[in-house]
Amino acid sequence: MTGERAACQGGGVSVHSAVDVIRAKRDGGELSDAQIDWVVDAFTRGEVADEQMSALAMAILLRGMTRRETARWTAAMIESGSRMDFTDLPRPTVDKHSTGGVGDKITLPLAPLVAACGAAVPQLSGRGLGHTGGTLDKLEAIPGWQADLSAARMREILADPGIGAVVCAAGADLAPADKRLYALRDVTGTVESIPLIASSIMSKKIAEGTGALVLDVKVGSGAFMKRLDQARELATAMVELGLDAGVKTVALLTAMDTPLGCTAGNSLEVAESLDVLAGGGPADVVDLTLALAREMLAQAGIDGIDPADALADGRAMDQWRAMIAAQGGDPDAPLPQAAHTEIVRAPATGVLTRLDAMGVGLAAWRLGAGRARQGDPVQFGAGIEMHFKPGDPVAAGQPLLTLHTDTPEAFPAALAALDGAYAVGELGQVAAGQVILDRIGD
Ligand code: URA
After folding, report:
1. Ligand 1 centroid vs 324 CA: distance in angstroms?
2. Is 70 exceeded by the pLDDT of residue 5?
3. 201 lines ligand 1 (CB under 6 A)
4. How many CB atoms are located within 10 Å of the residue 37 CB?
5. CA quadruple 146, 150, 151, 154: dihedral positive or negative?
6. Fewest beta carbons less than 10 Å away: which of 106, 155, 166, 373?
7. Where is 401: in which H helix or E strand?
8. Cβ of 296 less than 6 Å from ligand 1
9. Whole-angstrom Cα distance, residue 395 to residue 352?
């Protein structure tokens, strides 16, 4: 039953109706706490119809929500499922969330590094959709590794100081209202609402039970937020939601005009993360991992420990091996490799002036590294190796990129995505390659 009659469901006559709530927001009004609680709950129970929630999402996209409305909306989405609680663990909990970027494998070295420094890292994560990869897809490239864990096993791993970090799939009971709403937003042109993005991300992170959170809000061609002012607005909204819910929260705004590191694709990114954990790896990945680790330790109240030491002396690598083994993975098993490769060569001698994140992400996705629809399989070995970063000198004919796939018929579409995504020119044409652009929070 839907529409006006839905107001009479749920064990009594409700004073609310979906149409009234939609009209109120459509006309620029501020929704009351009671209206928000009711509409999210009734939607979760199936009493507010998908088309009504879609109309409300569009009204919110066009009219916005105040800080109070956004906080209440987030609380109602958390209430739609269960909330985990790790306050009894002997170590402080802290997590990191990235809004998604190309080559963003930072969680892989970061979670064990922060655990090696004394915090517990509970991360409920998702699979990738579209041109940015998902952390679970990357970890699933490791033979044997399992994303699904019971809450009891998750707690056991977090309590073990030799492991202390867990990255696993969010259960169906974590903010179920968000899952249904996100699916509607995806097909109704309402993803881009800042209050809806902020409440969607933060409802899941708050329900996950972390005591502190560091947000990595990506800005640039390969990110959700293309402009710094939009990213700042989103970061501010998320930091406010975290603080309002009692989670210590801070955000870094970081560049996503060019891919992070030198790989995009599941196995390739695991291999690069292992280089970082072994004390090497690309400078931008190492710098961002350390910057986020320092923020996480500060938010967790852990002072006097430099995460660079834990990377250099192998403690983070030991923690990684324990973390992978705890979820059934074999840290020594060879990673899947794609059956076919194709090389893109430098068209001229000069300096690589441009390597566009969106072009590389799209090409990796077309090679099979990502999925078009939820539930599609991914190719673990597919993706792109980048042999140069913007600013590097290159000689005509040198390999710039190596494309990997099991399905060689994908090469033309991937090469088309790379058309115009890279350029070789003169040194003066390269923009400064700063990764951390701003910080929001105390
Ligand atoms: N990621 C989410 O989880 N929700 C959004 O709305 C956007 C990105």
Report:
1. 26
2. no
3. yes
4. 17
5. negative
6. 373
7. strand 399-405
8. no
9. 10
Tell which residue, 193, 254, 252, 258, has the closest CA to residue 218: 254
248-280: per-residue pLDDT in tens?
Answer: 999 999 999 999 999 999 999 999 999 999 999
The interaxial angle of helices 50-63 and 18-26, nearest 10 deg, is 20
Name the band, by pLDDT with cuts 50, 70 and 90, for residue 374. confident
What pLDDT sits at residue 432? Answer: 63
Could you tell me the distance, in angstroms and rounded to a whole number, from the CA of residue 9 to the centre of ligand 1?
A: 30
How far apart, in whole angstroms, are the C-alpha atoms of residue 355 and residue 401?
A: 10
Pocket probe for ligand 1: among 182, 213, 216, the residue whose CB has the most ligand atoms within 8 Å is 182
Quote the pTM value. 0.94
> In this structure, are residues 198 and 80 in contact, taking their beta carbons and an 8 Å threshold?
no
Ligand 1 atom with least separation from CA of 197: 6
What's the pLDDT tens digit per position in 122-150?
999 877 767 777 899 999 999 999 999 99
Which residue reads 């109706």 in tokens?
17
Active-site choice (105, 204, 232, 371): 204
> What is the CA 404 to chain-centroid distance, rounded?
24
Euclidean distance between CA atoms 441 and 130, whole angstroms:
30
Q: Which atom of ligand 1 is nearest to the CA of 185?
A: 6
CA dist 201 → 70, 135, 139, 147, 204 (Å): 12, 15, 21, 19, 6
